[in-house]
Amino acid sequence: MWPRSSLLWARKKLTSWPSEARDKAPVQASDIQPRTVPRHLAIIMDGNNRWARREGYPGVAGHQAGAEVVREIVSACESRGIRYLTLFAFSSENWGRSRAEVRALLALLSRYLRNEVAKLASDGVRLRVIGRRDRFSPRLQRLMAKAEETTATGDRATLTLALDYGGRWDVTQVTQSIACDVASGKMLPDDINEDTISQRLATAELPDPDLCIRTAGETRVSNFLLWQFAYAEFWFTEVLWPDFDETVLDLALADYAVRERRFGVRPLLHRY
């Protein structure tokens, strides 16, 4: 599934990695087994503006190039058996960017929802949107609802777009919901456990992410899926999002495939 030639090509492409990151990239094709593909992959797509500056283009061109990569990666994840893909497309903090950049981002989102939904539906991909919707225009809210309705029967994969999303907002809205139920007598404080919270998060219908990829050299989660990342693996690359492609994705999957996930449990040592 991941040919050695592709992985070697990706190694050359990522020469800007810090040396310690390169040293930790085990990418032997023989190490990868299909059963080790993450069930749920989350991606923090970063670096559009830096890509535009590097190429001498206006900032909006970076976002346009990044949108093209989304189409490729959605298809690549589906073909590799990744059932759930969640993309951090527009954070709660993104409203603080310049008015022109916000308009450009929302225009690209509108175009994506209009142009890509038919293909997602034909490919059996269900589209979901998580985050606050009330701060988007009524027209954009209708596009989101229509996209979800059109793809509702997709059973091959689920693509989730995090829009006006923040992990702290997510936990806050769950806390408010639980507080209301306790105040009204619908539940007791002792009834609250981890499942109570997980079942009220925006991602309640999704399994927790197994792997998170972040591009552009940043090594933080930026208020994304804070509760859900409890046992996720992380893979960071200096590749800018518009340069991200299937080969870089395969490098991340190869690295994930040879990791030992313990979920906080120390393996038993056998005595001989």
**Which structural class do you get from the secondary structure elements?**
alpha/beta
Give me the strand/helix succession.
HHEHHEHHEHEHHEEH
What is the CATH superfamily classification of the domain at 37-166 and 207-217 and 225-257? Decaprenyl diphosphate synthase-like
Q: What is the rounded Rg?
A: 20 Å
User: What is the overall silhouette?
Assistant: globular
Q: Largest sheet at a glance?
A: 6 strands, parallel
**Name given to the CATH architecture of the domain at 37-166 and 207-217 and 225-257:** 3-Layer(aba) Sandwich
Lateral arrangement of strands in the main beta sheet: 3-4-2-1-5-6
CATH topology of the domain at 37-166 and 207-217 and 225-257: Undecaprenyl pyrophosphate synthetase
User: Could you estimate the helical fraction of the residues in percent?
Assistant: 40-55%
CATH C-level class of the domain at 37-166 and 207-217 and 225-257: Alpha Beta
Poorly predicted ranges? 1-32
Characterization of the model:
42% of the residues lie in helices and 13% in strands. The protein has 272 residues and is of the alpha/beta class.
Q: What are the salient characteristics of this protein?
A:
272 residues, six-stranded parallel sheet, globular, 10 helices, Undecaprenyl pyrophosphate synthetase, alpha/beta, disordered N terminus
